[in-house]
Amino acid sequence: MLDGCGRTIDYLRLSVTDLCNYRCRYCMPEEGVPKRDHRDILSVEELVEIGRAAVRCGVKKIRLTGGEPLVRRGILDICRGLAAIPGLEELCLTTNGSLLAGLAAPLREAGVDRLNISLDTLRPARFSAMTRRGRLCDVWAGIAAAEAAGFRDLKFDTVLIGGFNDDEIEALTDLSRTHPWEMRFIELMPMGPCAEWDTHRFLPAETVLARVTDLEPIAPQGVARRYRLPGAKGTVGLITPVSHDFCADCRRIRVTADGKLKSCLHSREELPLRGLHGEALEAAIRQGIACKPAKHHLAERRSDTPRTMDQIGG
């Protein structure tokens, strides 16, 4: 389906929970978020119904997000239900990796095609400090389990933060030399807890190119500008929502765990979907797509959304 700007919208990011077992400093307050009553978030059946309606509206790809989607009870049932939708071409999931060791194989069996794994640092102590409770060894165990389960072309998402992990750019890109992985650097966005951080924390993704000068450009994929080191098995991606906004090529919509459609991550506008079924649900999704704004305004001000990233779906 085309939105009001003529963009083809075929990608849904579907949040299954706003809870997380981490408390990453740029994403969540230390105390976490209030736990909702289970009646306040979309049920397994509602999530699958929204997925079906979105596919009927032209969506080809669904990505499950959170919070941390693997803490959601019934996550495998959600995956099975979505993977069975006729016309859905790709079911993906973004995770912090901490629970993958026990869930990678079941996720693969449930129909998940691809995984994105958050990896903001390669240093165990720094990792624990950023997540406030995570262990890097759990993520490495999850990565090994994912590969053993048959997941290929893993993507790793690193939020680029000045004074925190910019001294690891070279080490992170080096992982693409010996692994068929895509190491992706994402610009820190001024929203949630980090919105008031000092400006030196917000680095343009071009910093990666300045530090690793032998990166060679290759064909882009989605919103990522992609590069390869000479002779490398994998690739490096740059995602630049602030310095080079990619709004003109955006093809996604989002649905939050409490059932609100957001046609733009940074917009205040939300369209409630709960309680809608059949043609009414499809009509609401089409309305949300048609009203998708032309662009955000991160280059001029902080995000307009009052929600934090975990409340929207990372």
SSE string:
EHEHEHEHHEHEHEEEEEEHH
How many strands in all? 12
- Count of separate DSSP helical elements: 9
- Helical content stands at 25-40%
Notes on the structure:
- The chain is an alpha/beta fold and 314 residues long.
- It has helices at residues 44-56, 75-83, 100-109, 124-131, 136-148, 169-178, 206-211, 278-290, 309-312; strands spanning 11-15, 61-65, 90-95, 114-118, 155-160, 182-187, 216-221, 224-228, 235-239, 252-255, 260-262, 271-272.
- A 12-stranded mixed β-sheet has the order 7-8-9-6-5-4-3-2-1-10-11-12, with helices on one face.
- Helix 3 (100-109) links the parallel strand 3 (90-95) and strand 4.
- The mean pLDDT is 91.
Summarize the structure in short:
With 314 residues, the chain is of the alpha/beta class. It contains nine helices and twelve strands. The model has no long low-confidence stretch (mean pLDDT 91).
